[in-house]
Design a protein that fits this description.
Helices cover 0% and strands 48% of the residues. The radius of gyration is 22 Å and the shape is globular. The protein has 495 residues and is mainly beta. Residues 23-24, 41, 52, 82-83, 109, 149-150, 202-203, 266 line the site of beta-D-fructofuranose.
């Protein structure tokens, strides 16, 4: 499918489908040649959710994507291929791959033609994940349930067994099954009614994460909640904990929310990254409350993915375990440095970026030289505005309260009661001498990061005229501190 990637609302460094409607990332795995495969919930025939297939794209660097042919199609009228995951089966545990060590198995939910049942099916690929054959003995897991979906599978080294998590969405249960061969699954345990439940559990992930300051990675269960999230609609939450191959136990009863924006849902983590390395995730950058109505239909697509994110766990001041999430290797798409100032003081920099073809920027402001709590004063604020219409997206961080905010309300291309404007969240100073804010803005999406990703906010926005002017300013910063700012243009990875 061809795509037109030049429209004014079309992000230039984020993945978006060539045309049609996209939701969750699916089946993310790294093939034997190191190529990243991203599949996604895809309606190729409409601009709203439905008629779901698995779209497919590949990338060497997670920014420059090649759209591939649709990887999984429904077979019968009314059927849909819902979310799921993919693994490599190098030892041919499944028996599908007698002649190769690079076999790929996808496990997904089939929503049956009547819509009355959701079952888990598998399909195998001899060609690194470009084409799949559905297993003749499908389904491999069925429970006679209507809301039973989103299998995420992985190989568990210690027990030499496959593990899959599946959500009984409306019962708030994540069921764990094990298998020697990806075909015959045995129920192992339930993780249920934990954290925020909203009205559904969806898209579970379970994987090991590096823990800062420790040699031992830690397990992390990630669950997406929709509808009924506290910000409205869809969010992700996570539970650090322990997993023995059959049972997951969270370290505590705390509900930890992954992102304080409104457009970060159904995150999935790549299969195939060693446990002691930072894990890479991609989320769907939208929200079920309004995704079918956003104005990008005028450009013949709806929805984009978040930036690829590097993830690890840290021990944060006061609150303990925290998932840190920052753009993966963003330097690799830096184009030109537009601002470089290590000593902005209480100043402002303006950037006219109307001539930057991508319209995409990376920015950071690091308040340096902080010492005790008394030195935590002032704020750093940013505004991206349109010199044509005056529309803007703004945000900032306040050092004393530790609060960071984003406001997308001054854009006028989309009017919807659920498309709320303003977001904020607080973090605690860690005594490092630094307070940092950074972000990526890309035509119709902004991702903001506090203190290197300890907090993040992903928000889409829809201006009538492209934003083209940036102001970055510091006010009331303590005399003993200073502010270092840098702004880079990003090269379009779709050009
Ligand atoms: C999450 C979700 C999944 C489901 C898919 C359908 O956004 O509702 O639970 O598999 O989308 O497209």
């Amino acid at each position: 499918l061809p795509g037109y990637y030049a429209g004014p609302l079309r992000p230039q460094v984020h993945y978006s489908p060539p045309q049609g409607f996209m939701n969750d990332p699916n089946g993310m795995f790294i093939d034997v040649d190191g190529l990243y495969h991203l599949y996604y919930q895809f309606n190729p025939t409409g601009l709203v959710a439905g008629n779901v297939h698995w779209g497919h794209a590949t990338s060497e660097d997670l920014y420059t994507w090649t759209n591939q042919k649709i990887a999984l199609f429904p077979d019968r009228p009314g059927e849909q291929i819902f979310s799921g995951s993919a693994v490599l089966d190098p030892n041919n545990t499944s028996g599908f791959f007698p002649n190769q060590t690079n076999g790929v198995v996808a496990i997904y939910t089939l929503s049956t033609g009547s819509g009355q049942e959701q079952v888990q099916e598998i399909a195998y690929s001899y060609d690194n994940g470009y084409t799949f054959t559905k297993y003749a003995g499908n389904p491999v897991i069925s429970a006679g349930a209507k809301e039973f979906r989103d299998p995420k599978a992985f190989w568990h080294e210690e027990t030499e067994s496959w593990v899959v998590l599946v959500a009984f969405s409306q019962e708030f249960v994540i069921s764990i099954y094990t298998s020697p061969n990806l075909i015959d699954w045995t129920f192992a345990s339930n993780f249920s009614n934990a954290g925020l439940i909203g009205l559904q559990y969806e898209c579970p992930n379970l994987l090991q994460m590096p823990m800062e300051g420790s040699h031992e990675p830690m397990w992390l269960l990630y669950i997406s909640i929709n509808p009924g999230a506290p910000y409205g609609g869809s969010i992700g939450e996570y539970f650090p904990g322990h997993f023995n191959g059959t049972h997951f136990t969270a370290v505590d009863a705390v509900a930890r929310i992954a992102d304080f924006g409104k457009d970060n849902y159904a995150a999935q983590f790549f299969y195939g990254i060693p446990a002691n390395e930072n894990q890479i995730s991609i989320a769907w950058a939208s929200n079920w409350q309004y995704t079918n109505n956003v104005p990008t239909d005028s450009e013949n697509f709806r929805s984009v993915m978040s930036l690829p994110r590097y993830n690890y766990l840290t021990n944060a001041t006061r609150i303990g375990y925290q998932l840190v999430s920052v753009p993966y290797n963003i330097e690799s798409i830096f184009e030109a440095q537009l601002v470089s100032n290590d000593s902005l003081g209480n100043g402002t920099v303006f950037v006219d970026y109307s001539s930057i073809e991508s319209g995409a920027l990376y920015f950071e402001a690091n308040v340096t030289g902080l010492s005790d709590m008394a030195s935590l004063q002032g704020s750093v604020n940013f505004t991206f505005s349109s010199s044509v219409s005056g529309e803007s997206v703004r945000g900032g961080t306040d050092l004393l309260s530790g609060t960071t905010w984003v406001d997308r309300g001054e854009t006028r291309g989309f009017d919807n009661p659920y498309f709320t404007d303003k977001f904020s969240n607080s973090a605690v100073y860690d005594g490092s001498g630094l307070w940092r804010i950074s972000g990526v803005i890309d035509r119709s999406i902004i991702e903001v990061f506090v203190n290197g990703g300890e907090e993040s906010a992903t928000n889409t926005f829809y201006p009538n005229s492209p934003l083209d002017t940036m102001a970055l300013s510091a006010r009331g910063i303590n005399a003993t501190a200073d502010v270092a700012v840098a702004v880079w243009s990003l090269r379009s990875t779709w050009a």
